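User: Can you predict the 3D structure of Hydroxyacylglutathione hydrolase GloC? Sequence below.
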Amino acid sequence: MVQVKSFVFNPFSENTYLIHDATGEAVIIDPGCSDKAELAAVESYVEANSLKPVYVINTHAHIDHVLGIAALKRKYDIPFALHQLDEPLLKAVKTYASNYGFHGFDEPEIDSYLKEGEVFQFGETALEIIFVPGHAPGHVAFVNHAQRFVIGGDVLFRLSIGRTDLPGGNHATLLESIRTKIFTLPDDYTVYAGHMEPTTVGFEKKNNPFFR
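Assistant: Sure. Here are the predicted structure tokens for Hydroxyacylglutathione hydrolase GloC:
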């Protein structure tokens, strides 16, 4: 049984996810922890549940999703993976982080690259990697078919979609990613988004105003 724990962090109200299974192994997805208190919230959950974090993986590399990566890598001595096309976005964060009040951004080293079609495995859990650009050029999502959910980052939100007015964004590409990669999943799959509450594939196919 996979457990999905969400935290809401930083001024952007970003959803950080920690998923773990019966083995105690865990992965941290999109850690947006922006201060010591937010980092402590992750660490307290890990300790309280006797978990062993084994990897940090990111859907994409916008500032609100990457603030806690370096600290968590050091804390748990674990690697970090990202799609290669988002590496320039990660490297750009240090040039503008202070504009948002995040001073001294600690840029994490990328240890491996995520690729579409591969399956990221930890413990007894498998996450299929799907490539869903549009919000960011190297945006990916993680699909768990056993328990029918998607960690989708900033692609599809409840009754909305991700922004496309940021560098590397493209509105038509994002809509195509959702139509061909997310909406082809069964309707009952839960979508855990990078902001706001979870939704389902079926609900968004029926109600999302961008697809009427």
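The radius of gyration is 16 Å. The chain is about 25% helix and 30% strand.
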